Amino acid sequence: MKATTLNNLFSQFWPYTIDGLSLGAIYALVALGYTMVYGVLRLINFAHSEIFMIGTFGALGTLHLFGMPSNVGGFALVALVLALAVAGGIASGGSAVILEYVAYRPLRRNNASRLAALISAIGASLFLQQLFARLVIPQAFGLPKEKGALPVQGHFVHHTNVIHIGGFELSNDRLIVIVGAVLMMVALDMFVNRTKLGRGIRATAQDPETAVLMGVNIDRIVTATFALGGAMAGVAAALYMLRFEETRFDVGFLLGIKAFTAAVLGGIGNLRGALVGGIVLGLIEMYGSAVFGSEWQNVVAFSVLVLVLMFRPTGILGESLQQARA
Amino acid sequence: MNDTTNRNPLSRARDGYSSFFDTLRDRWATAPRWARWVVYLVLIVLAILLPADGVGSFMSPYTDWPTLLFFPIGGYILLAIGLNVVVGQAGLLDLGYVAFFAIGGYAMAIFGTKMHMSFWEILVVGVLLSAVSGIILGAPTLRLRGDYLAIVTLGFGEIVRIVANNTDYIGGPRGIGGIPHPPSLSEWTIPDNGFFDAIGIGGVQPLKYGALDGKPYYYLMLLLIVAAIIFAKRLENSRVGRAWASIREDEDAAELMGVPTFKFKLAAFAIGAAIGGAGGVVYASQSVSIIPTNFPFILSATILAAVVLGGSGNLPGVILGAFLVAWIPERIRGLQEYRVLVFGGVLVLLMIFRPEGLLPSRRRKAELAEGEGGMGGLGAEVGGPVTVAAGEVGE
Known about the structure:
The complex is a heterodimer of chains A (about 325) and B (about 400).
Chain A: H1 2-11, H2 13-41, H3 48-65, H4 74-109, H5 114-140, E1 152-153, E2 161-165, E3 168-171, H6 172-194, H7 196-206, H8 208-213, H9 218-244, E4 246-247, H10 251-266, H11 271-292, H12 297-311
Antiparallel strand pairs in A: 1-4, 2-3
Chain B: H1 9-30, H2 33-49, H3 53-59, H4 65-89, H5 98-114, H6 119-141, H7 146-166, H8 194-198, H9 215-236, H10 239-249, H11 251-256, H12 261-287, H13 297-310, H14 315-331, H15 339-353, H16 362-370, H17 390-393
Helix pairs in contact in B: 4-9, 4-12, 4-13, 4-14, 5-6, 5-7, 5-12, 6-12, 9-12, 10-12, 13-14
């Protein structure tokens, strides 16, 4: 029994690795939002998973806008994904800013406890999920009301293998996901480390009171943090649509928890840690599902979370948005 | 930043409401012992009369009122009392509380259908099993603090549900059916005469657990709730309760003062889990069959919301919160479709306008007002989730 399942892993090693990498890239992008907000506000933005969900629908809506193309391949696909990423980024980034304004800012003004903030986040998360399941999805896609909770499909990719060497195959969608995610991470890393706004974010994460004394406008920084994190989730959502070609109102729930796991795994508050954590989690998950069967994939992910927090609670790279290294 | 001197009508109404309850609480604190016992007795009698048809026709025109009283109302109240031990008293944020409810439920299902044990034996076993699983979860994770603990417990809740879903021995996604009802203790019937009829409980067989009448199950749940309340209240006023309060307010200070914080946190987890497990056993024995989707994350969130809505740390508040959370969606059928939507929105509004809950415990209110462990007006003012081992990994 054991030997055959391990055989399964070894005989299919490359496909599992590629799947793990592309899944991990998406986790990493979503994890950025958690890690940035946590770094600046010390808040688990529980509704970030719904920000991601809104991004998938932003991307899907854009596909419909283009008349639902099918069998797109080659460079046309790259261009299309770029458009989806922009749409998803705007949808998610915008809703993240609104979320902060409605659900978190009043609490910050009241000096509320972190428990209160987390409950507010859970409330916002439920609200957004149900808003989409009951109203937005049926309205936008002309479905009967009770169908709002079902997955919405959007097939548009013509799958081809870009690289094919021996047992190693890399299909076009997975290649775009991995490359796209890495490019976004590099861009964000440069933004946080090189620009004035990025310096403000790092300063606030490190010591908010001193940052204020040095003339940093905290509210602007918080808004920027949510906008950037949301936009990353939106890009992740577009890549998710490319990879899985369907979404639903609660698509963010599990993915959000796992992205948070990735953030913790890499070291929360640490942008590069999010990349490492996402990739590691994606790989572990796929290898785990190869060995134990795909129905145990989520159990493997959560067990990893528990184990990491037990043995290295600061994550692989440690917490460090505060340490001004981003 | 702290210009909280609001002068709008809304906050004045809030202040009036708060001072009314403060007066009530002062009265209660100074009331003589006999007066308290009278109030307790009146409350218990009212609870016994609650399932009467007359009450039901107003409270629940759409569903069978006694069944509704059993679950969700009674069930939520029991779970909220259990979660309050963890969240309200010890200050540990548990987002996977439904796991213990599930463990109790599956204990009832497995031992009842496969080993043919009786309900009362399983109640004991289920409670012990849940407590042990609370310790198993707590031992590795309680060294974490705050948000990290929340996410780990959430993960645990999901693990339990997915494992139940993937294990064929316990029915996988189809769950377990044919769970036995509790054996009837007696066929005794409340006399069907004028007086008992008038108060609406004539002809009820309160100790006969059949498939049709929901009232006996409600009484069983009531018994558990009363037991849990007494238990929780006694704990709160004991050395254990004081230790929990000190951990909740400042864990480092508590540790330095010689409170074995880890042990007491573990105890809070185990006790909370045990109460949740008891709820699960009773729930499973009434509903005949259970499936993994009976135990979703949303239930954990709902119970947590009940605790926070009512006033975390204050038993009457928690009970009120659980009642409202369970009852309102059932009462307003027109909102059925949108109830989670409304629920989510209400949670956000509540946290903005009344983060301490409807009936807050005075001590908790003071803690919240001080902003201890808060996000702060600026952003991060408290240290990150420090762990016991933090000294070793600091760079």
